[in-house]
C-alpha cells in the first residue's frame, strides 16, 4: 500500500482524500490546519466545516501534525491556499524525504512573487543547497462535492517527469476519477489559476442580470487572454483547449458550486468585497488573489488582458461592475484571431 500525505483539509483536499481512501489501496494521512477540523473528522468521519455530508473512508487518518502526516509519505499532495504555500512548505521541509513525489493541487498564483505553486515549492526546497524535488501539478474541472460523491470526473497531472505522471495516474485513478497526463506544467498551472478570474467576471454578469450571450462572450474572450499569457510564459496554446483550460473554465464560470463565480455574483449585486469574504466563513476564492498576480504577470510579459484588468479594478479599486462591462464593450475594434 502506498503512503500518501494530503496537506490541506479544505473541500478539495478532503475530496481527494475520499477518492484516494475509497480504493483501499492507500494509507492516507490528511493534515488539517485547524485542530477542530481534525478532531471532527476523527470523531465523525466527516469534514463538517468544508465538505459536510460525505463520509471519509477509514483508510484516511486525520492529523494536525505535519511530521506525522509526512512520516514515510511516498506521495505528498499539496492542497493549501496559494498564499500559504510557501510558509507551509518551509515548515514541512525538515520532515520531507528527497524521494517523495510532490503533487500540487492548488489553483492559484503567489501574489507577492507572481509564481506558480510548483515554482514556490521548488524555491523553498532548493534553497540553501537543498535538493531538486520531483514536482507535478494536478488540475482540471473538479468540484470537490461532486468528486466526493463519485460523479465521473477527469483531470490532468502535469510534469516533465514521465514516470511521476504515470505513477500519479496509476495511483489516483479509479472508475469515477480519471487522470490524464501532460508535460506542460506552465499551461496546466496557469490555466487552473487564471480561470478563476474569468469565473468572477461571469458571476458579475449573472449578478447584474445579464443573459447567456454576455457570459458566453466573456468565457470565450477570457479563454483568449488566458491563452495569450500562457504562451507568453512558455506554455502551450493547445493545453488551454484541454481539461485544465477550457474544461475548468467552463465549469468554474457556470457551475453553481463555484466559489469564484459566487463572489462575482455578489459583486454584481453591489455588495462590497470584505462583506462577501466575511460570509464565506473561511472558504477561499483563489481568484481574488490571483487577479493581482495575473495583472503583474501580464505587465511583465507585455500581454494585454482587458478582462483581468477590469476585474482587478472592481476587486481592489472599487470600480462599479457596470462601468467595467461598459469599458470592455466599448474598446476599440479588434480582430478575433489576432495574437
Give a brief outline of the structure.
The protein is α/β, with parallel strands linked by helices. 50% of the residues lie in helices and 12% in strands.
Explained architecture:
- This protein is α/β, with parallel strands linked by helices.
- It has two domains: 182 residues, NAD(P)-binding Rossmann-like Domain (Rossmann fold), CATH 3.40.50.720; 144 residues, N-(1-d-carboxylethyl)-l-norvaline Dehydrogenase, domain 2.
- The chain is built from 15 helices and eight strands.
- Strands 3-2-1-4-5-6-7-8 form an eight-stranded mixed β-sheet, sandwiched between helices.
- Helix 8 packs parallel to helix 10, helix 8 crosses helix 13 and helix 14 runs antiparallel to helix 15.
- The longest helix has 23 residues.
- It starts with a strand and ends in a 10-residue tail after the last helix.
- The mean pLDDT is 95.
Mean pLDDT metric: 95
Can you identify the CATH superfamily of the largest domain?
NAD(P)-binding Rossmann-like Domain
Q: Nearest-angstrom radius of gyration?
A: 19 Å
Count of separate DSSP helical elements: 15
Task: Detail the topology: elements first, then pairings.
Blueprint: E1 2-7, H1 11-22, E2 26-31, H2 35-44, E3 60-63, H3 66-70, E4 75-78, H4 85-92, E5 101-104, H5 117-126, E6 134-139, H6 144-148, E7 153-158, H7 162-172, E8 177-182, H8 185-207, H9 212-232, H10 243-254, H11 259-268, H12 273-278, H13 287-301, H14 306-317, H15 321-329
Parallel strand pairs: 1-2, 1-4, 2-3, 4-5, 5-6, 7-8
Antiparallel strand pairs: 6-7
Amino acid at each position: 500500500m502506498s503512503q500518501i500525505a494530503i496537506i490541506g483539509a479544505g473541500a478539495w483536499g478532503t475530496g481527494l482524500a475520499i477518492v484516494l481512501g475509497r480504493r483501499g489501496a492507500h494509507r492516507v494521512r490528511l493534515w488539517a490546519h485547524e485542530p477542530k477540523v481534525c478532531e471532527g473528522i476523527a470523531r465523525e468521519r466527516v469534514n463538517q466545516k468544508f465538505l459536510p455530508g460525505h463520509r471519509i473512508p477509514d483508510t484516511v487518518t486525520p492529523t494536525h501534525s505535519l511530521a506525522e502526516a509526512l512520516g514515510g509519505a511516498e506521495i505528498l499532495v499539496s492542497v493549501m491556499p496559494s498564499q500559504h504555500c510557501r510558509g507551509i512548505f518551509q515548515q514541512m521541509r525538515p520532515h520531507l524525504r528527497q524521494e517523495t513525489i510532490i503533487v500540487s493541487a492548488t489553483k492559484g498564483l503567489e501574489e507577492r512573487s507572481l509564481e506558480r505553486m510548483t515554482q514556490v515549492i521548488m524555491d523553498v526546497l532548493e534553497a540553501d543547497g537543498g535538493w531538486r524535488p520531483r514536482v507535478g501539478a494536478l488540475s482540471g474541472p473538479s468540484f470537490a462535492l461532486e468528486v466526493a460523491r463519485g460523479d465521473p470526473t477527469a483531470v490532468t497531472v502535469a510534469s516533465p517527469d514521465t514516470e511521476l505522471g504515470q505513477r500519479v495516474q496509476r495511483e489516483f485513478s479509479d472508475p469515477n476519477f480519471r487522470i490524464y497526463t501532460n508535460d506542460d506544467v506552465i499551461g496546466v498551472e496557469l490555466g487552473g489559476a487564471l480561470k478563476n478570474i474569468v469565473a468572477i467576471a461571469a458571476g458579475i454578469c449573472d449578478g447584474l442580470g445579464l443573459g447567456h450571450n454576455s457570459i458566453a462572450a466573456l468565457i470565450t474572450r477570457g479563454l483568449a487572454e488566458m491563452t495569450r499569457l500562457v504562451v507568453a510564459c512558455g506554455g502551450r496554446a493547445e493545453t488551454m483547449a484541454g481539461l485544465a483550460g477550457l474544461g475548468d473554465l467552463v465549469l468554474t464560470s457556470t457551475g453553481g458550486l463555484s466559489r469564484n463565480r459566487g463572489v462575482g455574483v455578489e459583486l454584481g449585486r453591489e455588495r462590497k468585497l470584505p462583506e462577501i469574504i466575511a460570509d464565506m466563513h473561511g472558504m477561499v476564492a483563489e481568484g481574488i488573489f490571483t487577479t493581482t498576480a495575473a495583472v503583474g504577470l501580464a505587465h511583465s510579459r507585455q500581454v494585454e488582458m482587458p478582462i483581468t484588468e477590469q476585474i482587478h479594478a472592481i476587486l481592489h479599486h472599487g470600480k462599479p461592475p457596470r462601468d467595467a462591462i461598459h469599458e470592455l464593450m466599448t474598446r476599440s475594434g479588434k480582430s478575433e484571431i489576432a495574437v
